[in-house]
Write a structure and sequence with these properties.
The structure holds two protein chains of two kinds. By secondary structure, chain A is α/β, with parallel strands linked by helices. Chain A is built from 19 helices and 13 strands. In chain A, helix 7 packs parallel to helix 9. The chains are: A alpha/beta, B alpha/beta.
Chain lengths: ~475, ~240
């Protein structure tokens, strides 16, 4: 029993961490009078993160519109920051009620969702490096140039029509900026106000005089197909806003708010210090996700490995199928299926945190199951015989003789898996879990600094995994007391 | 106490036991000898069903343990077994090795189990090792602990599967001494061994096995002194 104590302490602290953070994360749900808007908050001046009085807030002209709609409906507004790509699935699966994210009502999108009247018309511009400003004066001059656009955006569609241009689609505006600055792309197609915000913060970037024909795009609010009632409310509010030309004013205000954000210095240490709260929160979520992932992965993996070694063919088949499918498909795909697919098909809505934990748990359980199987098979057959000869049942022998020895022998491999999970947990930022990676992305879009926030995140990930490896090494040495000769 | 009728055991096409009939009485010390591959270990392991017999019947204390649905754990509680390679539990202390099964299987109270364990450790002369782990012991010490672990269940019979074969020669004595003490206390014992001197001294009956069957059996003086079967004579001439 003595040898088990450090492990129990470890589990216990994980659980405690789990229960202290969960309530904080999943509060404020289940209110009839809540309207949830989804947006991709890296799109100043329409929607972006801003540090106001030391608190991170999502602001912008679209947010103002959302507030007005909610106020008119007498509902509380809830904002979910979701990558642009994932907005439509989120709406489709009912996780959000509407999208206000500078979205253009294309024919393709209309097939899946319903759009409001358009509330704003934006023009598209070409952004490039200052020294190339005069090189690209028209769309024709872009022939042979490589162009950066945001994945899934209307600009991607526009850029596709530019003859002879090579397209590079990336997730975030900050990535486009980084690609431009590093010379990986020559130009970028962007919404006018968005580009202006970037240029104001990056002295090495400029907007060219080129105009793109037929590129003026409307923006409209998306709701789930057939949600006529909500659409009516939205159009009512929009009509009112249009009368006073208020949307334009929202955009102007937001542009002003955004340019006030200008960073004094993009020094990596300044960024870290100024945004330490973002990173602290991110670390909290990353640790919670990894700890829960390993804990549940450990338990599920153990059960699966016992299935795998069972005498019953059905159980063995289940275990083999489970591990092969989970190990043979990308975790990102699993994450999206669990988060959006299950909500859509079975109407079970997990919070983003729950989806993240479930994905990490089942994914790591498949790997841990294989590790346990090797560990269990590695225990000397004589151990089973000796225990059985004393009258102990099979289950009793597994619990008190075989599994403890197996777990001990595979502890280094389990520790390795823990380290892998910490790193791979960064994937959950995709559905909007506010983990370390997510926070780094937020800081990127606030500071207009494309690289440094990522370097900080990398350093933090490294410190976490390095410290963990050392701790596991110590635990391993303590466990090996009985091996001393 | 143990009655074996027509016991057969095959591994695939290889028939290891070709039909064994034997009765072992309470308090009797039976020593099984024979050349390698004669099936003596398999025979012993069939007695507590570590090997499932292919055919035949085994009665333990008048219960047919080879019948389907018989709860073999019930019989194993009363049959101690000692293995060639000790098979102590490496992640448990010596004391835990001795108390685990009594507490889990017999539901003995931890205090009572510890009391019994300490008495047994005293008997095998290893009281001072109670809190060490098996890997810190010598082979001879390990086997004495393994005997004590089996005895902690207070069995009615003890099975020994070549208990001294994996030991360095200088450690054989200490283990045999413990076994001898046990025999003198009246424990029913079935011993598979290559220690002929010990067999002669301690055994009430010697069983000589070859080719998966019992070739000859009887009191030690008879089997060792005047073996009647040529194969027994041949075997003994080689080992003595």
């Amino acid at each position: 029993m003595k040898a088990l104590k450090p492990w129990f302490a470890c589990c216990l602290s994980m659980l405690m961490l789990f229960f202290t953070v969960i309530p904080l994360a999943s509060a404020a749900q289940d209110n009839q009078n809540v309207i949830t808007v989804g947006l991709s908050a890296d799109f100043p001046p329409y929607e972006f993160h801003k540090n106001i009085d030391g608190k991170d807030q999502i602001v912008g002209s679209d947010v103002e519109i959302a507030k007005r709609i909610a106020a008119d409906m007498g509902a509380t507004l809830q904002i979910q920051d979701i990558p642009f790509d994932s907005l439509l699935p989120a709406l489709d699966s009912g996780r959000i009620d509407m999208i206000i994210s500078g979205m253009t009502p294309t024919e393709e999108r209309r097939q899946n969702v319903d759009f409001s009247e358009s509330y704003y018309i934006s023009r598209q511009v070409i952004m490039t490096r200052v020294e190339d400003k005069d090189k690209y004066t028209s769309v024709d001059s872009l022939q042979g140039a490589s162009i950066g656009v945001q994945k899934g955006s209307i600009q991607e569609g526009i850029a596709k029509d530019i003859k002879g241009a090579k397209l590079t689609s990336v997730d975030r505006i900050a990535d486009i900026v980084l690609s431009l600055e590093s010379g990986r792309v020559d130009a970028a197609v962007m919404e006018g106000p968005v580009a202006e915000g970037q240029v104001a913060n990056h002295s090495d970037l400029a907007i060219t005089s080129a105009t793109i024909p037929d590129s003026d795009t409307e923006m409209a609010i998306a709701v789930k197909k057939g949600n006529v009632e909500l659409l009516g409310h939205i159009n009512g509010t929009l009509a009112q806003l249009k009368q006073g030309d208020q949307v334009k004013k929202f955009v102007q205000d937001a542009t002003a708010l955004n340019s006030g954000e200008q960073q004094k210095s993009n020094n990596i240490f300044t960024i870290f210090w100024d945004y330490r709260q973002y990173y602290a929160k991110g670390i909290q979520y990353t640790l919670l996700l990894s700890a829960a992932g390993v804990l549940f992965g450990f338990l599920i993996g153990l059960v699966i490995s016992l299935f795998r070694l069972s005498n019953m063919g059905v159980l063995r088949w289940i275990a083999v199928t489970y591990t092969e499918i989970l190990r043979g498909t990308p975790m990102l795909v699993q994450l999206l299926i669990i988060h959006y697919g299950i909500a859509q098909t079975f109407h079970i809505e997990f919070t983003v945190l729950e989806s993240g934990i479930i994905t990490l748990s089942i994914n790591s359980s498949a790997y841990l199951a294989e590790i346990f199987r090797a560990g269990i098979q590695g225990v000397d057959r004589g151990q089973m015989e000796a225990a059985r000869s004393l009258g102990m049942s099979h289950g009793m022998t597994m619990r008190s003789i075989i599994i403890p020895q197996a777990v001990k022998s595979v502890l280094p491999a389990i520790g390795n898996e823990f380290v892998v999970i910490i790193k791979e947990s960064s994937i959950v930022s995709f559905i909007g879990v506010a983990d370390l990676m997510f926070q780094a992305q937020a800081v990127r879009s606030i500071t207009y600094s494309a690289l440094n926030p990522l370097l900080i995140a990398a350093a933090i990930y490294f410190i976490m995994t390095f410290v963990l490896s050392k701790l596991l090494g110590m635990l391993e040495r303590r466990w090996s007391v009985s091996d001393k000769r | 106490m143990i009655n074996v009728k027509g016991l057969k055991k095959s591994f695939g096409k290889n028939e290891v036991l070709t039909g064994i009939d034997v009765d072992i009485a309470k308090g009797e010390v039976v020593v099984v000898i024979g050349p390698s591959g004669s099936g003596k270990s398999t025979f012993l392991r069939c007695l507590n069903l570590l090997e499932q017999p292919t055919a035949g019947e085994i009665y333990f204390e008048d219960e047919l343990i080879t019948q389907r649905k018989y709860d073999i754990d019930n019989a194993r509680k009363k049959m101690g077994m000692v293995f060639q390679h000790f098979n102590l539990f490496p992640h448990k202390t010596i004391l835990q090795n001795l108390t685990l099964a009594p507490i889990k299987v017999k539901k003995t109270s931890p205090a009572e189990a510890e009391k019994i364990a300490m008495e047994l450790l005293h008997t095998v002369g290893l009281e001072d090792k109670r809190d060490t782990y098996p890997n810190q012991l010598s082979g001879g010490q390990k086997q004495r602990i393994a005997i004590a672990r089996a005895l902690a269940m207070q069995p009615h019979v003890m099975l020994f599967d070549e208990p001294t074969s994996a030991l360095d020669p200088e450690m054989v004595g200490e283990v045999l001494e413990v076994m001898q003490k046990l025999a003198h206390e009246g424990m029913t014992m079935v011993i598979v061994t290559h220690e002929m001197g010990f067999a002669r001294e301690v055994g009430d009956r010697i069983i000589f096995m070859d080719g998966g069957q019992i070739v000859e059996q009887g009191p030690p003086e008879q089997v060792f002194g005047a073996p009647s079967h040529p194969r027994t004579q041949d075997f003994l001439s080689k080992v003595l």
